[in-house]
């Protein structure tokens, strides 16, 4: 059985405290010092991680003798947000994942970020589980900044995910949880899967297997490594973005996570008022449609999907 | 004056978004040029008010033949949010002022930022009217971040009391001020007001500072009184007084008040029992530059910021 602890609290104005809770599972053997943190709910509208936390907790309760380290589960970092469908920190409207490493001498969101970093400091590994947002549906993937590629890609490959996306460093992303933790020596992977405000059971089980496999490899669980899928690596191809050219209602023509050919119709943007089809959204390259819009109202520019594939040599 | 659309964007159902600009002076003037950007988020109504007030003022001055530079004022960037009580872009809740320099092929707010930035590039001076991102209200101040291209001297011509001058944070690389500086516009922000409200005195102060700047930098043929000699403030000269408890916050002082060591600044009351939880006492002599502005305060929130010439008691814990 894990121990449930309040690891960060701060008084709210009217008879309540903001709190971050964790459930900690430890090895009976005191020499087992490796520690992993499973984190979800930095964004309050992303719930896939909650289910993964449940599944992992359920597994650990049934297999306590397999534990050879410390496993910390933090299902709801933005606990105010999780319980109220609020992505950002309520009251301040600040994206918690843009305020790390935070500070004790700043406003509430920064204090929460600082609290989170201090609680997890010393952890060897951290898995930060996101589920895109309400707008987009994603296949299970890990996103890694180019500078961390060498350290993190081998770990990501153990996670039973479909795609490892190494992206260029962006200064803004220096204010994320993952960047803050990687900077202080905790190897932190960011998982994106599913869609905001919803639960995908299959993805939850898929990532559970990945977490068990990773912990087996790291010696945190004394189990045989699992047979996991090997993710597609972003460096073997390119990502094409499909952005809406018109405002309207986006109606997808194909399912998420399908292979598409160049020129295929991905969906239509239609006008609910006039009954016209405003635009046909065409795949610019062939490959896997790994992101697909889930929320149908779009403006010009709204992301409709992403395709991973080889860019064809011919010009359009 | 020329009133024109800088950006228009169709919406699925509501009327199109229009970002309007008001341009004064000759398009191809030899005089210096300035662009002034107002409300980028929906709670920056004080910024909107000052910008539209400036449009009205400059219209008169133009009729009097007093404009000698090129002056562009953009009172509202995010009218969509202003019109519905939202802070950010109403659909995806992204902050337009976190999207610079923008991207023409990107997401909606990246495109808005890119089109806006196309217009803003090339001005000699750039002023951003900003609100605070926390629940604070402050004496109006100039915020200048260090990008390597900033020009501290020019900001002194506003004649405002304080210039906060500090290194930039990672998130600020996506904001207008930083990117504008990189494109060699002498850009800075004037931060003022309490979000969602209008303060008449602050508005007048900022208006006067802008007029002074236009005059001193040769865009307006009109003499104004000298302003204050600006104090350059780095974060070390500010004492932070934090609320040790959460509850109802009652302040006894206004921003700008000179306070003595030991003076009572405010109190925190238990929101349910009414019990007095904390008396907030100034540990040093100085000027209250900022204070928490919402009646309900969180534990460890910054209740007051006090600027003093000599560092008295930087709170670090
Ligand atoms: Zn997220």
Please tell me about this protein's structure:
The complex is a heterodimer of chains A (316) and B (317). Chain A has 316 residues and is of the alpha/beta class. Chain A folds into two domains: 3-230, Zn peptidases (Aminopeptidase, 3-Layer(aba) Sandwich); 235-310, OB fold (Dihydrolipoamide Acetyltransferase, E2P) (Beta Barrel). Helices cover 20% and strands 33% of the residues of chain A. Chain A has helices at residues 48-62, 79-82, 108-120, 149-156, 177-183, 201-217, and strands spanning 3-12, 16-25, 35-40, 70-74, 125-130, 136-145, 163-167, 187-194, 232-233, 238-243, 248-252, 259-260, 265-270, 277-282, 287-293, 297-298, 303-309. In chain A, strands 1, 2, 3, 4, 5, 6, 7, 8, 9, 10, 12, 15 and 17 form a 13-stranded mixed sheet that branches. The longest helix of chain A has 17 residues, at 201-217. Chain B is an alpha/beta fold. Chain B folds into two domains: 2-232, 3-Layer(aba) Sandwich (Aminopeptidase), CATH 3.40.630.10; 235-312, OB fold (Dihydrolipoamide Acetyltransferase, E2P), CATH 2.40.50. Chain B has helices at residues 45-63, 79-82, 108-120, 152-156, 176-182, 200-216; strands spanning 2-9, 17-24, 33-39, 70-76, 125-130, 136-138, 141-146, 162-167, 186-191, 231-233, 238-242, 247-251, 258-259, 264-269, 276-281, 286-292, 296-297, 302-307. Chain B has a nine-stranded mixed sheet, sandwiched between helices. In chain B, strands 6, 11, 13, 16 and 18 form a five-stranded antiparallel sheet that branches. In chain B, strands 15-14-12-17 form a four-stranded antiparallel sheet, with no helix packed on it. In chain B, β3 (33-39), α1 (45-63) and β4 (70-76) form a beta-alpha-beta unit. The mean pLDDT of chain B is 94. At the A-B interface, β1 and β16 of A face α3 and β17 of B. Zinc ion binds at residues 43, 46, 130 of chain A.
